[in-house]
């Protein structure tokens, strides 16, 4: 075989796509195109701009290892600041020319000539040797099927498609959903709303943290003056953070019990009203769902204009919401903080692999991949932040960089003429998923709560191992796990 430069199409320009573009460019790949359906880069930070949006991971950790930023304004950055950071990184690292915005991929099909045909919403067809899906996890908004919702007289807005012209000041606002988003949006809208009703189907444990804290004066100056020190601090924080999170989530330990005790203490100390506290107290262990962190929610929900509604929603009427007990509460605006179709990955894009198999059929019971990145039946296709990515424990930027580096090693083999096709075996994928299922046993995600971590067949779609195991699994390609052509 003679090698040649692979034509690579990356789908998505969020954290995973930006990282992949950077890593491939650094490895000398010259034919890389990133297709992004939005009109800007940033992924989740582009699509989400609801009031109160902040990242609950400290900014000095929630950033690319290859582009640390010294001058974050807040310890926990706002969504706007993070979105600006992504745009700046792309500009400053010279990635802009690789990215085509406003280009939605609708289809990708593998053919007999061993290549992918990628079709865009505009009908354009592009040919690639490799497709890398960096399409994100929490992307497609979930709208609940509540009777009457379509007939509500006022605006109904999903947080992930926020209407920036919507003014909720002085309005009666109903917020449905109590994940990280619902908690943030209630805290932000409560002060100016005439009233705010928070409809809570399952209560959430909330860890208190001073989220609006400003980065200490002098930190930015020191970190930019000493970039090596900055990188070292970043690495230490990322390592320490993932070690702690992996420890508390994946096995019972005193550290898990300590974090859980803190969650319980936050509720006890910050909510003195026993009736309200009882309604706010979940019936499952803290950390079982994606942990919610907030410095302002308990204050907001205690306010005189706020109500926590725990009776189930029976229907939406043109004027408001009727709960299962028959009570009707008027509303001017309904905010859906109801989350995402978290297991779609690249779908609803149509993805057709070898022998015309359809990803919808392969993943009918839930997404499965080999080490987050390869899927049997789909040659020359990889995912970055694919199934089992560590959204509950390890930095997504680190995971993206590691996965992109792993993929780059296969692309180098193509360039060197050592392979033209590569497809992971069923056996290796089954073995990996069996290991995942076994390792999920002692995790906190498996302790009896419902969450977006669970797939249709009840599997936990997360990473149950530590960072070292991830590095080992993605450090070097294991040819025995693949059909190479
Ligand atoms: P989510 O955690 O999936 O929460 C969705 C909420 O909607 C849940 O409370 C759910 O109740 C409720 N819900 C769904 N259908 C409902 C219905 N028919 N009636 C009543 N309630 C209904 O979604 P999210 O809050 O958007 O958060 C998703 C993830 O995004 C987070 O876990 C986090 O990973 C990420 N995020 C991060 C940040 C950050 O600061 N870094 C901020 C926002 C989001 P049940 O629990 O009963 O199903």
UniProtKB/TrEMBL annotation:
One of its GO terms (molecular function) is oxidoreductase activity. It comes from [Mycobacterium] nativiensis. InterPro entries: FAD-bind_Monooxygenase_sf (IPR051209), FAD/NAD-bd_sf (IPR036188). It comes from the Bacteria. Keywords: Oxidoreductase. Signal peptide: none annotated. Its EC number is 1.14.13.-. Pfam families: Pyr_redox_3. This is NAD(P)/FAD-dependent oxidoreductase.
């Amino acid at each position: 075989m003679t090698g040649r430069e692979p034509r690579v199409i990356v789908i998505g320009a969020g954290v995973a796509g930006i990282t992949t573009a950077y890593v491939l460019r650094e490895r000398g790949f010259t034919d890389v195109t990133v297709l992004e359906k939005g009109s800007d880069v940033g992924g989740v930070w582009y699509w989400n701009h609801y009031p109160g949006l902040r990242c609950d991971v400290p900014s000095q950790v929630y950033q690319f290892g290859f582009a640390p930023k010294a001058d974050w304004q807040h310890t926990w950055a706002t969504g706007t600041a993070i979105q600006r950071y992504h745009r700046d990184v792309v500009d400053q690292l010279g990635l802009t020319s690789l990215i085509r915005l406003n280009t939605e991929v609708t289809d990708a099909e593998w053919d007999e000539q061993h290549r992918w045909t990628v079709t865009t919403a505009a009908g354009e067809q592009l040919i690639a040797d490799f497709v890398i899906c960096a399409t994100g996890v929490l992307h497609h908004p979930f709208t609940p099927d509540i009777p009457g919702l379509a007939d509500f007289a006022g605006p109904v807005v999903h947080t992930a498609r926020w209407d920036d012209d919507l003014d909720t000041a002085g309005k009666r606002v109903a917020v449905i959903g109590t994940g990280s988003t619902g908690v943030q949006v209630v805290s932000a809208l409560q002060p100016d709303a005439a009233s705010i009703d928070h409809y809570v189907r399952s209560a959430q444990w909330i860890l208190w943290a001073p989220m609006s804290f400003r980065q200490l004066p002098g930190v930015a100056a020191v970190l930019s003056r000493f970039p090596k020190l900055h990188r070292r601090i970043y690495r230490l924080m990322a390592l320490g953070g993932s070690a702690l999170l992996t420890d508390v989530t994946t096995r019972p330990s005193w550290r898990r019990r300590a974090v859980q005790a803190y969650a319980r203490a936050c509720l006890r100390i910050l909510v003195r009203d026993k009736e309200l506290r009882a309604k706010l107290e979940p019936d499952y262990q803290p950390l079982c769902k994606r942990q919610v962190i907030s410095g302002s929610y308990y204050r907001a929900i205690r306010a005189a204009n706020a109500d926590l509604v725990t009776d189930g929603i029976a229907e939406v009427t043109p004027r408001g919401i009727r709960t299962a007990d028959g009570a009707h509460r008027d509303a001017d605006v309904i905010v859906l903080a109801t989350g995402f179709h978290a297991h779609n990955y690249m779908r609803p894009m149509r993805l057709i692999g070898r022998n015309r198999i359809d990803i919808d059929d392969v993943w009918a019971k839930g997404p499965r991949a080999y080490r987050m990145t390869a899927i049997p039946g789909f040659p020359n296709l990889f995912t970055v932040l694919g199934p089992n990515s560590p959204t509950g424990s390890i930095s997504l930027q680190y995971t993206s960089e590691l996965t992109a580096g792993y993929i780059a090693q296969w692309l180098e083999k193509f360039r060197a003429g050592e392979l033209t096709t590569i497809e992971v075996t069923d056996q290796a994928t089954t073995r990996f998923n069996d290991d995942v299922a076994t390792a999920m046993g002692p995790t906190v995600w498996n302790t009896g709560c419902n969450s977006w971590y669970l797939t249709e067949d009840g599997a936990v779609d997360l990473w149950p191992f530590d960072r070292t195991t991830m590095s080992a699994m993605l450090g070097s390609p294991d040819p025995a796990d693949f059909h190479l052509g």
